[in-house]
Amino acid sequence: FLSGGLAWNRLPGRSCCRLDLLARGHSPVALSNNRSHRIMMLCGLYVAQGIPWGFMLISLPAHLAEKFKVSDDDLGNLTAIILIPWSFKLIWAPIMDTFTIRSMGRRRAWIIGSELMMAATLLLFILVAGSDLSKQLTPLLQMFFIHNCFASLQDVCTDALAVDILPDSERGWMNGTMWGCKLVGKGLGALVLTRVLNAGGLE
Predict the structure, then answer these.
(1) Do residues 186 and 51 touch, judged by C-beta distance below 8 A?
(2) Are the C-beta atoms of residues 43 and 31 closer than 8 Å to each other?
(3) Beta-carbon neighbour count of residue 21 at 10 Å?
(4) pLDDT of residue 88
């Protein structure tokens, strides 16, 4: 149907509607119509997931163990609190499909919101981190738990976006490519942030 010069057309074999810009002869700019843009977008979102993981699961535990002699039990708690929120993906999916801001599309508001909250939790951690992180394990666990709640939400949003915009012929190899990008981000996060911690810590 038409609305204000715009039309929603349901594509055959697709699970979503595509917004076609019909007014004034504009060409469609949706990600579903631009292969390179959708690949870069999806891969970029997965790299963004991986960088904090490299810091949380590799760089920071190693730093805490070496510099502050944090026990294995505490490091195990840190790892567990990072992974538990990923079980919430079963909850996020129906919520995301039920509530949306239509003017921003089905996924955009959720992706932008989760990315902003992921950044905010990491920034808050950096701001409150003192010279002795071993004395701040409880707020550290709380902050990492909250961060990964939003990271798991971002993961669900990104996967839903991929289903929406990828043609059937791209879904298989893009699934592997996206996961590979997350591992690249994890490696980069571990490499760069380990050097940062070794150079001067978080002070």
Answers:
(1) yes
(2) no
(3) 14
(4) 93
The structure tokens listed for 75 are 């490091």
User: For residue 148, which amino acid is it?
Assistant: N
DSSP string, 153-196: HHHHHHHHHHHHHS-HHHHHHHHHHHHHHHHHHHHHHHHHHHHH
Q: Which amino acid is at 39?
A: I
Tokens representing residue 162 in the block: 């991929």
Q: Which residues of the chain register pLDDT less than 70?
A: 1-29, 130-131, 201-203
User: Tokens in use for 145?
Assistant: 């738990």
Do 39 and 166 form a contact (C-beta atoms < 8 A)?
Answer: no
DSSP state of 13: T
| Per-residue pLDDT tens digits for 44-70 | 999 999 999 999 999 999 988 988 888
**Longest alpha-carbon distance in the chain:** 66
Which pTM does this prediction carry? 0.78
